[in-house]
Structure formats: structure tokens, C-alpha cells
Design a protein that fits this description.
single chain, Collagenase (Catalytic Domain), binds zinc ion, 4-stranded mixed beta sheet, alpha/beta, 285 residues
Amino acid sequence: MLARWRRWRDARFAARHPFPADTWAEARARLPLLAALTDDEAERLGLRAWAFVHAKRLSLHPALVDTPFDPPARLALAGQACLLTLGWSEAEHREAFANVHEILILPEAFERHVEEMDEAGVMHEYADERAGETSYQGPVVVAYPDLMESGDFSGFNVLIHELAHKLDLGNSQDVDGFPPLPRDIAARDWHRVFTAVWDDLQARLAHGEDTPIDDYAASHPGECFAVCCEHFFSAPDLLIDAYPELYALLARYFQQDPLARLPQDGDGSSPSDSQSHSASAASRG
Ligand SMILES: [Zn+2]
């Protein structure tokens, strides 16, 4: 009965909102991340992105009233969001984003007042500049300049980062780096692989060494998951070189192999740029 209802609903949606193939082609032409998809992947992602555009509210801050955000830009945004769940069934995709109600675009990176207790029990207060943030049932908030910088293979993608937090929030109200797992991935395996990455990042930082992935991953287990998701999709070669076991785990989790899609010639956005880029970007929040 449910399946029949879904088919009826999908048919009605398709009849009322015919898929804009030209707009999707333009969206793909703008973003290397989407241009790299195979034809089959692009077709499936396009349909999901089109449904996403209608199912979720997209809000622009009033200060962006004169900023061009045309239909291809909207579809490109939705396409990046739905890229995360592209390897999952339609039902799993809908379920994963059930807690995404609104995407809010702000004109600039924004500041948050942060209070943090350190291990010695001392409270630290500071202003944290953020490119994005999200919460359990709150909107996905992204800064326009960072959104515009997302979509290539540089390792930075504020939208994928924030939506990874939404996946993380699928089983609790706290971001903890532990999203709901498919049956074939044991929680202990997830914990072991991510703990090894976490420990390696902490050890390198303690020794004053560079980290192979954006060191924002070392700030919190939830950020570790979100940054690894960003790299998985937009700098897969960097991630597999640094942490092959983690790449393999995420490939099983997402049911995707972004490394196979990575353009061979690199069109001006090689993953080796990611470290310098990350250093200049506001933290994703
Ligand atoms: Zn974050």
C-alpha cells in the first residue's frame, strides 16, 4: 500500500513539475563535482535534486536580494546535498534527510560566541567565525561565499560538511561522529577506524606537525566525521592516501567510490590546494 502511494505521489510530482533537463545540465556544467558523475549517476542525482528543491525550503538572507541565485544555482546546491545519499535507496535518502527542513544562505561567514571548558576545568570564551552550522531540527546555515567556493575537487565543501552533520544527527540530538549505520557496518569497526584517525591527528598536532587532512577534523569527533565526508567526496585521493581504511569504510557507508570519478587532468582545482584553502576558510561549524 505504501509503495503504491509512493508511486502515485512520485508520478503526480513528475506531472506537475517536469524535470528541467537544461537547468540540470547547466548546474552540472558549473560544478566539477557534478560534472564528474557518470550519466546514470547524473540522471538519478538530478531527479533527487529536483525533488529536494521542492521538498526543502531554500531561504536567502534579505541582504542577498540582489545576489544572483538562479534555478541552475538552486539545482546545483540540491545536487551537492543529494550527492551524499546518491548510493542509497530512495527510501533511505528520504529518511536520511527527514531532519533537513530548510537551507538558509547568509551573506558572509558569521560569528558565534563560544564557551568551552578545557581539560583543566578552565572556561574559555571566544568568537568563532563560521562558514556554516546546523543543529538537530534547525536549518542548515551556510555562508554565500563559502557556498560559491564549494563544488570542486579542492577538499572544501560547506554544504557536504553541514549535511554530514545532519546525517550524524539522525540517531541523537548531539553531533558525535556516529550516524545511524547500515546493518553491514559494525559500530565497533566504525569506532575503531575513526578513533585511529582521531588519535593520529591529535598526535601530529601535539608534535607540531602538519595534518594530512584539514586539522578542523581534530577539533571534535563530529567535525572529524564531517571533514572526512567533505574530503571523501571532494578530495578522495587525498583521503585515501592519508587514511585508506577510513576511505574504505566511508565507501561502504555511502555505497560510493568518488575516487573513480575524480577527473584525471584536474581542471585547476587539484586536491593539493585543499590545505592552503582550508587554512584561509572559516571553520564550518
Ligand atoms: Zn562542522
